[in-house]
């Protein structure tokens, strides 16, 4: 099929289903072009090796579902490991889902806060009741976890009047939300040594998700951008005020390590 035929086929599909235009507008190509024009030197974050950030060779996860919509085991190991390095760590996250990340972090942090849409707000979006009910499934009974409810676009983070050691941004991954959440976190929730971690900076550990990267770059104050990194073997980007050895990795890479995982299956009693 030549280019002209492809153009006519695309137009025909859009006329039949106008919503497809959103897929075209939001395509990775568009966001790559956006980044190249606005941030020509930031089309990919430099990568730091997981083992350089967390040299401890023992990382345990006591709650992991291996179900859809969640994080990689290495993503949660990253969160828990970073929090474990900070005495009496105070943790905040945007985006609760089943509560897998925060329940694991809560074993290594003194206090945890997690913000998500309320059940009513989820239902107002036309999403199923079952989906709404599953939010906080693992985390809602833990004493050192505080569940907050609201839309991050309109939520007043300033009213918390509190700073956090580690902040995880894992809400809506559309550009406007990532930019908003990033800007508000840096304005209201950070102290000078805070660490910020973004989920889904990458589709998979060797493929950047350009829309999320664009939101990060446009949300973070310019003076912090040189301390942005991708953490190898994860979907995560990270900000830390510490300079860490990093480089632009040429994917795919030759592995320099592997993770040995032992899983124990446990039933959940109703």
Automatic annotation (TrEMBL):
One Pfam annotation, family name?
Methyltransf_24
InterPro entries to which the protein is assigned, alphabetical: SAM-dependent_MTases_sf
Keywords for the protein's UniProt record, in alphabetical order: Methyltransferase, Transferase
Which GO MF terms does the UniProt record name? methyltransferase activity
What biological-process terms (Gene Ontology) are attached?
Answer: methylation
Top-rank taxon: Bacteria
- The name of this protein is Class I SAM-dependent methyltransferase
**What organism is listed for this UniProt entry?**
Polaribacter pectinis
């Amino acid at each position: 099929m030549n280019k002209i035929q492809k153009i006519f086929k695309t137009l025909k599909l859009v006329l039949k289903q106008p919503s497809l235009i959103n897929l075209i507008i939001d395509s990775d190509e568009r966001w790559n072009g956006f980044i190249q024009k606005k941030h020509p030197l930031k089309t990919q974050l430099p990568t730091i090796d997981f083992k350089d950030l967390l040299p401890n060779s023992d990382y345990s996860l006591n709650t992991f579902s291996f179900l859809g919509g969640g994080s990689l085991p290495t993503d949660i190991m990253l969160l828990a490991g970073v929090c474990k390095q900070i005495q009496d760590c105070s943790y905040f996250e945007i985006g609760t889902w089943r509560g897998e990340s925060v329940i694991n972090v809560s074993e290594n942090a003194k206090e945890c806060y997690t913000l998500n849409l309320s059940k009513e707000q989820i239902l107002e979006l036309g999403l199923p009741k079952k989906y709404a009910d599953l939010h906080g499934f693992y985390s809602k009974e833990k004493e050192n976890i505080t569940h907050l409810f609201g839309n991050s676009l309109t939520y007043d983070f300033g009213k918390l009047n509190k700073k956090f050691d580690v902040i995880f941004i894992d809400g809506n991954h559309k550009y406007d939300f990532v930019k908003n959440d990033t800007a508000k976190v840096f304005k209201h929730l950070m102290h000078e040594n805070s660490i910020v971690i973004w989920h889904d900076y990458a589709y998979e550990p060797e493929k950047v998700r350009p829309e999320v990267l664009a939101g990060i770059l446009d949300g973070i104050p310019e003076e912090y951008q040189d301390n942005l990194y991708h953490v190898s073997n994860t979907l995560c980007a990270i900000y830390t005020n510490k300079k860490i050895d990093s480089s632009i990795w040429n994917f795919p890479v030759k592995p320099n390590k592997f993770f040995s995982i032992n899983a124990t299956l446990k039933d959940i009693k109703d």
